[in-house]
Write a structure and sequence with these properties.
Rna Polymerase Sigma Factor, Chain: A; Arc Repressor Mutant, subunit A; mainly alpha; single chain; 2 domains; 7 helices; 78% helix
Length: 166
Amino acid sequence: MKIQGKDIIDSLYREYEQQMYRQAYSILKDEYMAEDAVHEAFIKLIRNRGKISDTQSRSVRNYVFKTLKSAALDLYRNKKKERESCVEFDESLENTLTAEETGLESPEDLLAKLPEKYAQVMQCLFMDGLSIRETAAVLQISESLVRKRCERSRKLLRRLPNEKGR
């Protein structure tokens, strides 16, 4: 059955959405991330809807689930990177705050030692609990710039205790 345009996406949604959600949940083990994965997969499917004609064909079904798997794995990797950077920041913050040389009393004091553009990123990510995507939107910068500033902030934080003793 050949369908075109918006109807293709509606048909794909009716036919596969629940199966896609279950598949994404089995990969991610988180209902919100599974919903995000299905959403991301449909965005990719919408962009490539011109390549889809028969929603019930085996090749389209395979394409739908490969797209979903890719979206789910991307979300998993991004979340893993965020968790790793949170742990690194927390450890860096803890190590710096417990070092007697710093004389700092709170995380806010530590962030005050960073250049403003770095402190803003760290404030959003770690004090306000925003994701990289949300931080980028709030600060009106790209996600890659948020990651880079976070990385540079961590390097600066590691150097803080050493600079005090000089």
